[in-house]
Amino acid sequence: MGRTASGDPASLKHVAALAGVSVKTVSNVVNGYVHVTDTTRSRVQRAIDELHYRPNLAARQLRQGRSDVIALALPELDLPYFAELARSVIKCAEEKGWTVLIDQTDGLVEREQLVLDGIRGRLIDGLIFSPIALGAADLERRRDTTPLVLLGERVFDGPADHVAIDNVAAARAATAHLVGLGRRRIAAIGAQPLPTSQTAHLRLQGYQEALAEAGLPVRPEYVVPVDRYHRGDGAAAMRRLLDLPEPPDAVFCFNDLMALGAMREAYERGVPVPHDVAIVGWDDIEEGRYSIPTLTTVCPDKQRIASLAVDFLAARLGDGSEPPHEVTAPFTLAVRESTVGRPGR
Amino acid sequence: MGRTASGDPASLKHVAALAGVSVKTVSNVVNGYVHVTDTTRSRVQRAIDELHYRPNLAARQLRQGRSDVIALALPELDLPYFAELARSVIKCAEEKGWTVLIDQTDGLVEREQLVLDGIRGRLIDGLIFSPIALGAADLERRRDTTPLVLLGERVFDGPADHVAIDNVAAARAATAHLVGLGRRRIAAIGAQPLPTSQTAHLRLQGYQEALAEAGLPVRPEYVVPVDRYHRGDGAAAMRRLLDLPEPPDAVFCFNDLMALGAMREAYERGVPVPHDVAIVGWDDIEEGRYSIPTLTTVCPDKQRIASLAVDFLAARLGDGSEPPHEVTAPFTLAVRESTVGRPGR
DNA sequence: GTGAAAGCGCTAACAG
DNA sequence: CTGTTAGCGCTTTCAC
Lengths: 345, 345
Description:
The structure is a homodimer.
Chain A: H1 12-19, H2 23-30, H3 38-51, H4 57-64, E1 69-74, H5 80-95, E2 99-104, H6 109-116, E3 126-129, H7 136-140, E4 148-151, E5 161-165, H8 167-180, E6 186-191, H9 198-213, E7 223-225, H10 231-242, E8 250-253, H11 256-268, E9 278-282, E10 296-300, H12 302-318, E11 326-329, E12 331-334, H13 337-340
Parallel strand pairs in A: 1-2, 1-3, 3-4, 4-5, 5-11, 6-7, 6-8, 8-9, 9-10
Antiparallel strand pairs in A: 10-12
Helix pairs in contact in A: 1-2, 1-3, 2-3, 5-12, 8-9, 10-11
Chain A binds a DNA duplex through residues 11-13, 21-25, 27-28, 31, 35-37, 40, 55-65, 122.
């Protein structure tokens, strides 16, 4: 056995001593350098195995100035959209040899501010951030220099890369689909009181544009604001809509979770979907492919979004000199039972 | 401006120079030590603010031997059960001042092995691991000394802390519930061909015990194996069951996702749930509270599991000398529409 | 109360 | 091809 008979982890020095070589040689072997004799290599390798040597990443990072760790900051991990996105980001990052550390902001201003302030102190090489509460001003004010890629709406032409989909166009497409089905009393669930929420604002805009195009009025009572984008909020909003003297015959929900909540509420009230009320969601979460009925939805290309974000970060880490990117990821509209009913029936 | 006029991040030395004190004093201020004059403190603080100083966590870790980062290794982040669990773990860890880094294993042997081998170098202080493919033998073989807490089934009395629920009892309760409703042809979805899967084995055992207690036979054709625990697997399994000459009048699915898939399949075949076939799941994911019909399910106390796991790790990090803990978290059975139908109808 | 110096484990630079 | 040295930024002695 080597010097580290007890539990204390072995260092390069221990391995070098056991193998009878210098630390540099061990380092060369560990890092897979070519200029090492096979005999030396195998001798070192044996020492490594014997001591169960693992490189100390903190020391390496201190020396090299990078950790190969990036942070992914998002509101809630148990919101399916973000969970699916996180899965893709982690997968893409892994291909680059990066580890992902998760920051859960709960969409709270102070948490998001901390993330932006670089709370992770040089621990991370880069940050992929999906802001909810923070707006353009907060981002402009940022002093931390950690490379940043923003996910979600394009809030401004700031100093950060940005990956988003065309919210207005997608919202217009979703609403137009309902119009095309002959629906005339089309409501929207997901407006947000806070002016910071670009997402809600843009989707609302697309909704209004589509109505205008169809010559339909925008009825204020058909635009329902919500606090969060959870199932319960969708259900509550639907309750309000169905209580109206003239309830809508279609509802465009700004995310799938609310759409699912709204469908559940319709079911409880005995209102058949899509016959009496058609429902469209947004996010294309797996759940909507198995719900009863299945959910028509706007499909942002999540894998694409994830890979673009990771690629941007990679470019930024390569040489910090490129101009900010802004990219619009593609989307499609998946038409399912919640608007057109069951085929062959 | 201080020495770091350009973008290079400021170090303790820079701050010390600007404030006209030694690095030690700055360190004292940063770490909130008491023995510092108010005047000194404020002077240092001003320098910190001016230079936007952030401590270098890698250097601190190298010196202190700990990073306050833990890893959470689980199969897939977009499986709602794990997403919800991850959320809780991150929240609990945060209360301890820890950051969580996610390792996604996809349930693959090699990935799980890497996690266990301490691939993270000394980057992480501890590991919370939910194994799928690895069994007792692999865990026994582990050489890495990073404190480990296992989530899920108690595969063995090994050298690691363990948090799980009583799978046999919960499976028995779920099956007994179906028996109590008068169902007599009760199937099970989720058996696993691999002998390593303790989870599937234990749940199957509980199912069989409950049938035996009720004097019902265990029909081999009613026990359906699956590859993964996804919605699609549940749907496929249900297809097989409904194709039987004598289809079951109840199905116990080993997780919610498969139950949801099974419900969808029943719907597509025009088989009413729960009238013709009652369905029980396992995990109590949020989705099952809004599905149509809502899903009867075994509810493991996820928050409890998360906090126990984090607490174990904390104890282990405090002084590495305690004996391994094994704790059984509580569970309940949530009875919903998928077995008893809609109340008041 | 504050300062000076050593060293955590590693790799970059330069010798040999 | 391999060895030596220095130093990343921080905290931890130990002086003062």
